[in-house]
């Protein structure tokens, strides 16, 4: 059996699809299944069992001998969350308990970290362990992820294989439930369909023109390929960036969305909301050399190609992955 936490969410549900495609059908999905808006992400998938996240460790105690691998992708992912107690409970303490269980039962573990740990990027975007204690995230969400990364590398006892993945700006199908936290592509698609135009955040940094803010946008199908690679390799434990290694602008992203829809671009700007303005990242770009060095050699999907696939094959048709 393969365990996937956060399984009804965006990235994890895409991973379940990819596992099914590789004939892994004994998948135990773990989540808070009361959020009905996410359940469509699991419809039609081959699954072994649903386990509520609050009951998981009791379940694992009974079934650990049958578990082959753990993907811990569940978390509180709202980057505007200010309740540190919630973030500590779900992102730090739950992950610590997962780590300790994987040590106890000798289970390989891949868990979700985040590029939010890099903060303003003043120290760059290297996934070198030596930089972890020096990073200063810009929000409590980033703090919670960085706290766990630092805790993990300091542990004297570790799973026999483990990897933390610092996800950059992931986009793609199955993020329909994410609301404000969904990718700009989903917001652009909806706005273009409704109004024929798209409104982006204005830059409040003199070094960046409006729409020229840059992020490392990575297609979710590439993300799950990396997860599959790590599951099959099970060596070279550590924390790895997961982006494309190439920053692109929000204008690039939005223009690609208009092009995928076959519509003339009409892009407007509004002020960045005050609740995120001071913690806004203007540039992110993953240093991918560490993952490449352990043998991951697949090319990452070009932004224009990923947006076209997402828009035409999922957003226009209403399909899930």
UniProtKB/TrEMBL annotation:
Q: Which residues bind substrate?
A: 169, 180, 187, 201-204, 215, 280
Q: Which cofactor does it need?
A: NADP(+)
Checking InterPro entries in the record gives: Epimerase_deHydtase (IPR001509), Heptose_epim (IPR011912), NAD(P)-bd_dom_sf (IPR036291)
* Residues annotated as the enzyme's active site: 141 (proton acceptor), 178 (proton acceptor)
Biological or metabolic pathway of the protein: Nucleotide-sugar biosynthesis; ADP-L-glycero-beta-D-manno-heptose biosynthesis; ADP-L-glycero-beta-D-manno-heptose from D-glycero-beta-D-manno-heptose 7-phosphate: step 4/4
Enzyme Commission (EC) number: 5.1.3.20
Entry-linked SUPFAM superfamilies: NAD(P)-binding Rossmann-fold domains
GO biological process annotations for this chain's record?
Answer: ADP-L-glycero-beta-D-manno-heptose biosynthetic process; carbohydrate metabolic process
Instruction: Say yes or no: keyword NADP present.
Output: yes
Segments forming a coiled coil: none
Briefly state the protein's biological role: Catalyzes the interconversion between ADP-D-glycero-beta-D-manno-heptose and ADP-L-glycero-beta-D-manno-heptose via an epimerization at carbon 6 of the heptose.
Which family would the database say this protein is a member of?
Belongs to the NAD(P)-dependent epimerase/dehydratase family. HldD subfamily.
The record's note on its domains: Contains a large N-terminal NADP-binding domain, and a smaller C-terminal substrate-binding domain.
Name of the featured protein: ADP-L-glycero-D-manno-heptose-6-epimerase
Species annotation? Hymenobacter rigui
């Amino acid at each position: 059996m393969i365990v996937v936490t956060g399984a009804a969410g965006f990235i994890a549900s895409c991973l379940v699809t990819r596992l099914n495609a590789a004939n892994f059908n004994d998948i135990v999905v773990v989540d808070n299944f009361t959020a009905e808006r996410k359940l469509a992400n699991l419809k039609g998938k081959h699954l072994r069992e649903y386990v509520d996240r609050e009951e998981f460790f009791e379940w694992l105690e009974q079934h650990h001998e049958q578990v082959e691998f753990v993907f811990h992708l569940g978390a509180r992912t709202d980057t505007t969350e200010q309740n540190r107690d919630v973030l500590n409970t779900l992102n730090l303490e739950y992950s610590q308990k997962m780590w300790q269980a994987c040590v106890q039962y000798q289970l390989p573990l891949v868990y979700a970290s985040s590029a939010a740990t890099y903060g303003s990027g003043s120290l760059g975007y290297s996934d070198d362990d030596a930089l972890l204690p020096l990073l200063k995230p810009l929000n409590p969400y980033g703090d919670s992820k960085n706290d766990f990364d630092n805790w993990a590398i300091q542990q004297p006892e570790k799973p026999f294989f483990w990897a933390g993945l610092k996800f950059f700006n992931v986009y793609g199908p199955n993020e329909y439930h994410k609301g404000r936290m969904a990718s700009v592509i989903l917001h652009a698609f909806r706005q273009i369909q409704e109004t024929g135009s798209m409104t982006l955040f204005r830059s409040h940094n003199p070094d960046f023109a409006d729409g020229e803010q840059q992020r490392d946008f990575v297609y979710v199908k590439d993300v799950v390929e990396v997860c599959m690679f790590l599951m099959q390799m099970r060596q070279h434990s550590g924390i790895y960036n997961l982006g494309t290694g190439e920053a692109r602008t929000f204008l690039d992203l939005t223009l690609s969305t208009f092009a995928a829809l076959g519509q003339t671009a009409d892009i407007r700007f509004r002020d960045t909301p005050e609740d995120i303005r001071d913690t806004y990242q203007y540039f992110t770009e993953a240093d991918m050399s560490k993952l490449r060095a352990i043998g991951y050699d697949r090319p990452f999907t070009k932004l224009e190609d990923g947006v076209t696939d997402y828009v035409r094959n999922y957003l226009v048709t209403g399909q899930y992955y």
